[in-house]
Amino acid sequence: MEEKEAFDGEGMLQAQAEIWKYMYQFADSMALKSAVELRIADIIHSHGSPITLSQIAAGIIDSPSPDITCLARIMRLLVRRKIFTVTPQSDGGEALYGPTHMSRWLLHGAELSLAPMIMMENDHRALAPWHYLSNCVREGGIGFQKAHGREIWDYCSMNPEFNNIFNDAMRCTARITMKAIMTGYKDAFCGVGSMVDVGGGTGAAMGEIVKVHPHIKGINFDLPHVIATAPEYGGVSHVGGDMFKAIPSADAVFMKRIMHDWNDEDCVNILKNCQKAIPEKTGKVIIIDVVLNPEGDGMFDDTGLVLDLLMIAHTGGKERTELEWKKVLEEGGFPRYNIIKIAAFPSIIEAFPE
Fold first, then answer.
1. pLDDT tens for residues 182-193?
2. Strand-pair partners of 285
């Protein structure tokens, strides 16, 4: 009787509804991906005003006879998620779909866009490791390696197509984060004569810093297969190598979303190499990474916890709380640090060897 009453309560009904919601939350990602693939945001924004479903369908590339009913159902969920707006017509005509702040993040070719990141994270090769989370608990290890037989960095080096998708995603997030950094941290670059971006990808971040601060001698440092696809940036030299062996010398080390890819032991080794690369008294390491706040209610606190699981799936690394950062920094030779919040999901962690 007690068990029946427990399942009949309003609280259990609400709990059931929540579980159903979380069970199918992947559909939000798939609808978002379809919007990017179909360039729905681009079609709506290009008109400059809300448009009908028929107009959206007519703008879809390489689709002479799109299924408008299917499109309508996808749009219904995206409107519910506030990606787009819909306005019914009082005269009974077709409803008009309009843009929102969120839809602007789906635009192709925009200076600030999350479209490449959406495509990468929802690529079937990036999704496969998520199915191995429970295996990671039982056996340890990295989801990506279990799914694909090798770590993500080796996989990228052997698969040029996925490597390009991955690099495009990193470039788009780099632009977003760098905009926040250049606004919220700009004065801290003034006294730096040279800087090495460790794990800098194809060099977009270093290029942005040097463009605004041309007195800095910029070094973009990453694995050789990554550097091989890097374009030229004025004032930036590309150097291929391995951060676990040695890091090029500079006044400061810049690491954006690198440390979270590695476990504590690896991070300590990276920091020790950073310490060797910078001046003992005046050098510093600038880390751009998430500082987790598991009980927080900030706009990115929930995303931080999801990103921590992404690290289990993709890299074997982790997102860290301030206390976890403090431990890693001290063991790596950086007893003093500052945390600076910026208008993005990561924070800036300034670390000093003295």
1. 998 977 888 899
2. 253, 351
Candidates 47, 108, 225, 260; catalytic one: 260
Q: Which domains does the chain have, with CATH numbers?
A: 2-104 (1.10.10.10), 115-352 (3.40.50.150)
Report how far apart, in Å, the C-alpha atoms of 184 and of each of 13, 41, 187, 272, 352 are.
45, 29, 8, 27, 19
φ, ψ for residue 285 (rounded to 5)?
Answer: -115, 130
Convert the pLDDT of each residue in 274-325 to its tens digit.
999 999 999 999 999 999 999 999 999 999 999 999 999 999 999 999 999 9
List, in order, residues 6 or more apart from 15 with CB less than 8 Å away.
none
Say whether 260 is catalytic: yes
CA distance linking residue 288 with residue 117, whole number of Å: 18
Distance CA 240, CA 121 (A): 26
247-272 pLDDT per residue, tens: 999 999 999 999 999 999 999 999 99
User: Cα-flanking dihedrals φ and ψ of residue 57, to 5°?
Assistant: -60, -40
What contacts 320, CB < 8 A, 6 or more positions away?
A: 259, 260, 289, 290, 291, 292, 328
Q: How far apart are CA 212 and CA 196, in angstroms?
A: 16
Place of tokens 């403090």: 326
